[in-house]
Design goal:
alpha/beta, Rossmann fold, Alpha-Beta Plaits, six-stranded mixed beta sheet, four-stranded antiparallel beta sheet, 14 strands, about 25% strand, binds adenosine-5'-triphosphate, nodulation
Length: about 325
Amino acid sequence: MTPAATPILAVEALEVRFGTRNVLRGLNLAIASGEIFGLLGPNGAGKTTLIRTICGRVTPTAGDVTIAGHKRGKRAALNHIGLVPQELALYMHLSVRENLVAFGRLSGLRRKDTHRAVDWALEAARLRERADDPVDILSGGWKRRVNIAAAILHNPSLLILDEPTVGVDVDARNELQDVIRDLSLSGMAVLLATHDLDQAETLCATVGFLRDGVIAPKGTPRGLIAETFEGQKEIILELRRKLTKKQRDALVRSSFIAGTSEMSWSVMGAADGSTSVGLAERLERVGILVREIRLREPGLDSLFLHLSRKKTDRAPMVIEEAA
Ligand SMILES: Nc1ncnc2c1ncn2[C@@H]1O[C@H](COP(=O)(O)OP(=O)(O)OP(=O)(O)O)[C@@H](O)[C@H]1O
């Protein structure tokens, strides 16, 4: 966002408490017209709570939220928001067009405006060819596009998407991403909550990590990666066999992070690749058998793992001494 741009969404010092639990603790966020902001964060960090607060469904304990200059919760503010929830909220037996007409009427569009809005939304969500199909015969990716079309019928200034591509195949995901990109190019500000870090990296001008009730760090994906890793490379180990507890502890103490299967581990190493030289032999000496060692440029996924670790977990890579 350029410093001069007036944000479509402005969140200032937002606090939300549930009972004794402070979920949001002085959160700030600004999204400009045409900007796609990726909201990242571990499960339970408060992403949905932030979205619900922006939409006026949760009352904050402190702070301000304005949408296109209107205070959150007011009718004028709601008129500027298009919300695409994670769950599909569609009439399955009606056609795509009938669904959109129904949503248009429900959202208060006049009859004569509804058909124009539906035609525009069908085009924008690339749904024209399926307009007359009943929703229940569509695949997951198409249904999600109908969900988006329903949210943009009133041409909102701010489009909020909560995990828009969960459970869809790669082609459908790419199509959805193109739809979101086109909407941002038409001037919509987009808040995209996602666990899909690859998607955030390709789609979002800026991303932020919601942790401990605030969004930090925040910046361009490339900028954040460069700042955090300072040119280091990510070393990925694929193991031949399962680790003993002792071997596992040794890797963890040496700053390795386990992938989802625990047969894959990663660690940051020197930019010139020297860290990986002789690594397989060193690991073998402590009984850790490696199938493959790869080097790659770190991505947002590496940053996410890095930020998710406790500071005390981080140590230099000293596998020999540690094991
Ligand atoms: N209405 C509520 N009353 C009490 N606690 C709540 C309420 N809504 C959310 N929470 C709590 O607030 C925390 C944040 O939840 P939230 O759903 O916003 O997280 P999230 O980042 O969206 O998670 P996920 O990625 O899993 O959807 C959680 O601990 C949740 O249990």
